[in-house]
Design brief:
By secondary structure, this protein is α/β, with parallel strands linked by helices. About 35% of the residues lie in helices and about 20% in strands. This is Glycerophosphodiester phosphodiesterase.
């Protein structure tokens, strides 16, 4: 059983998977998620060479924009001219916070250069209560947390996640170890599988719930998978198909009545 009545629905890079909103990490994708009534969106962050923090997934401009180059090596004056799919500018995290002051943002810190700009952005907006800091790098995650004036939600990096998974499968003392390792963590954000390894299983879910830690699964786009995972008892889903997930949760009576921002 999930920890809360309403599972946490997170729109991956905004609502980027529908027929009309395919520009991932564009402001229109974040707007579309908010219009659907999403409380949470997910984004990665990178910083330009002059410290401007972008709500953007890739370390380069090449894949999704009409420009080229490594973001960390380019100033904002250059990056600001790039257009996602030749259409929309790359949003700054500052713009996202300002445009949607009620929206919560799950933030994956993709590069060391984004650490200080992210700390500054959260502090400037007083956004501590509406962010979750995540990173594949446990070092980057901890660096952000240590620089903030107040605690924020957080999910573990790969190193800590591995230790938590192992502890969840240790008989007798594993639960105590899990709880100690999970101090300061509010959610595990994991794939269902990593290659041939099943990451999500009953032992992990039960250990997390015993420690009052949520379990979120990414990135889930098929209705049948959403329903199966929700039935299993997970607490949140990250999806490209924000429309499909909302439909599933509404049908299950698990969509909170949150006004669009």
């Amino acid at each position: 059983m999930a920890l809360h009545a309403f599972p946490e629905a997170l729109a991956h890079r905004g609502f980027s998977g529908g027929d009309d909103h395919t520009l991932e990490n564009s402001m229109s994708a974040f707007d579309a998620a908010a219009a659907l009534g999403y409380r949470w969106v997910e984004t990665d962050v990178h910083a330009t060479s002059d410290g401007v923090l972008l709500a953007f997934h890739d370390e380069t401009l090449d894949r999704t924009t009409d420009a080229r180059g490594v973001i960390a090596q380019l100033p904002w004056s250059v990056v600001s001219e790039a257009r996602i799919n030749g259409v929309e500018p790359i949003p700054r995290l500052d713009d996202l916070f300002t445009r949607h002051p009620q929206l919560c943002v799950n933030i994956d810190v993709k590069a060391a250069g984004a650490i200080e700009p992210l700390i500054a952005c959260i502090e400037q907006h007083g956004a501590h209560d509406r962010v979750r800091v995540a990173s594949f790098s446990e070092k980057r995650r901890r660096a952000v947390l240590s620089g903030l004036s107040r605690p924020v939600r957080s999910s573990p990096g790969q190193e800590l996640m591995t230790a938590l998974w192992v502890s969840a499968h240790v008989p007798v003392v594993g639960r105590m170890l899990f709880r100690r390792l999970a101090k300061g963590i509010d959610a595990l954000q994991i794939p269902e599988r990593q290659g041939r390894v099943r990451v999500l299983d009953r032992a992990l879910l039960d250990a997390a719930h015993a420690a009052d830690v949520e379990v979120h699964v990414w990135t889930v786009n098929e209705r049948s998978d959403m329903e199966r995972l929700l039935d299993f008892g997970i607490d949140g889903l990250v999806t490209d198909r924000a429309d499909t997930l909302k439909d599933v949760l509404v049908a299950r009576g698990e969509w909170p009545d949150v006004p669009a921002t």
